[in-house]
Amino acid sequence: MAMTDLPLEQVRTLLAVVDEGTFDAAAKTLHVTPSAVSQRIKALEQRTGRVLLTRTKPARPTESGQAVVRFARQLATLEREVRAGLGTADDGSPARLPIAVNADSLATWFLPALTEVPQRLPVCFELHSEDEAHTAALLREGRVMAAVTSSAEPVAGCTVRPLGLARYLPSARPGFVDRWLSGGPLEERLPEAPVIVFDRRDELQDRFVRELTGGARGASGARHHVPTSEGFCDAVAAGLGWGLVPEQQALPRYRSGALVGFAPRRVLDVPLHWQQWKLDVPALSMVAEAVAAAAAEALHRPR
Prior knowledge:
Layout: H1 8-20, H2 23-30, H3 34-48, E1 53-54, E2 60-61, H4 63-86, E3 95-101, H5 103-107, H6 110-115, E4 123-129, H7 135-140, E5 146-149, E6 158-172, H8 174-181, H9 186-189, E7 195-197, H10 204-212, E8 223-225, H11 229-238, E9 243-246, H12 247-256, E10 260-261, E11 268-277, H13 282-298
Parallel strand pairs: 3-4, 3-5, 7-8
Antiparallel strand pairs: 1-2, 5-11, 6-9, 6-10, 6-11
Helix pairs in contact: 1-2, 1-3, 1-4, 2-3
């Protein structure tokens, strides 16, 4: 069945449920009853022959549902572009650009890039913070139109361009180094030292220790989870553990003496890419150029 055979009212309803999280919230947005929302979703599932939503809180699209959600969001974007071109935009509200970006980029170089987008452009940014290894999943789900990701493999229907290397420096408070990392080879001491990680999916510290030990060990099981970029850096500076701190955040603290680099000849570089939908949308193109320019200034080039 072609996407153009799908009733647009039902497609838009599916998108509303995914964006709002529940049938009740979608009903309020669409100014219909929850029963009407449920009926439209059931009709769309019957028409496609697929289950499109998991009835959880929040509701999530299935793999089949992701394809319909991407179509719905692309359709809404193109419809807005056509209306703007014809001068018939109904409510005058700015276009919404949902973008996924990793927390470290968001805390360092990414936001200044958005300020370079012309202020006259009627657009509002909806930023989703996610680990760079998982932002591409939001593209596949149709929840965002673009993403800063570590994946060089383009998501279906997307283009990809390299941005550069985000550099992380192994860092700790000076007193922490004296207590935990002195008196023996680093490859023996570091796996035993308390460590800061962003969340349970953060593998950067384990990856660094595996490289240091030739794959023999990972980071310590004594780990503190600090799920914000600024909080992560503050936790390392407070001496709770060591961590891989983004270069832009680490260097000022090196100069002040709050942090030191305990393995100066070792860094961890994470390649970042920009992926976006294959749509001829001026606002998205302007954002892509601004992000690429900011990344060229802030990130390292591959050797």
